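Re-run with default settings, no changes from the original entry. Doing this only to confirm the output is reproducible before filing.
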Amino acid sequence: MADADFRLDGKRAVVTGAARGIGRAIAERLALAGAHVIIADRDEAEGAILVDAIAGAGGKAAFVAFDVAQPGMVAAAVETIYASHGAVDVLVNNAGIVRNVPALEMRLDDWKSVLDIDLGGVFNCAQAFGRHMVAAGRGSMVNISSICGEVTVHPQPQVSYNAAKAGVNLLTKSLAVEWAKSGVRVNAVAPGYVGTQLTLRGRSNPEWFDTWIRMTPMGRLGEPREIANAVLFLAADASSYITGTVLTIDGGYTAM
């Protein structure tokens, strides 16, 4: 494979939930590969810091604020992005939250907030950006799922997160099949435990953390950059014959 297959020179990439954690690592990696990265997040302060960091490293980035759970806001942001920056070539649906609440204690609002962002947000963005990509006959989408979309994890309770990520996996495959002949590819990556703010509560709980490490054959957490590298592969021409796949990156957790 030529090095050019892993480059994104001249392309525009939108990364949702990019202000921190895995999203930030993805934005930085795509910018390093030559993409003009649009940071999409609700946190304008952190988004601005990331834009400056990418520019300081010689890359190109801009920030657009929107909430992926609000379809109208997403649609307006898409129009703004296309008008201000041009056609989008890559969409990374990364925005997500988790609620570690036992099922019998979970309030409907907590359930809905996770589903609205982690699953609904992926669909809202995929649909809004997908309209343009399908019309243009090109594009690559990468959805950030989780091993929780395939297996239940222990000992933390997170029924809403698990359900949402299982939905993301089948949504990915469904869109991939619908759009395959249009030239738009849709894939997902499914990380295991990664050292980010999202896993901070668990990493601070010895019972949870010890179980995570014990059940991961490689015996460590993943790093955000390891997820970002896989996203770059699926976003770039290096994976031009791959669509509808969910790439698991979990240190062997789901192989146990």
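The longest helix spans residues 108-136. The CA atoms of residues 34 and 73 lie 28 Å apart.
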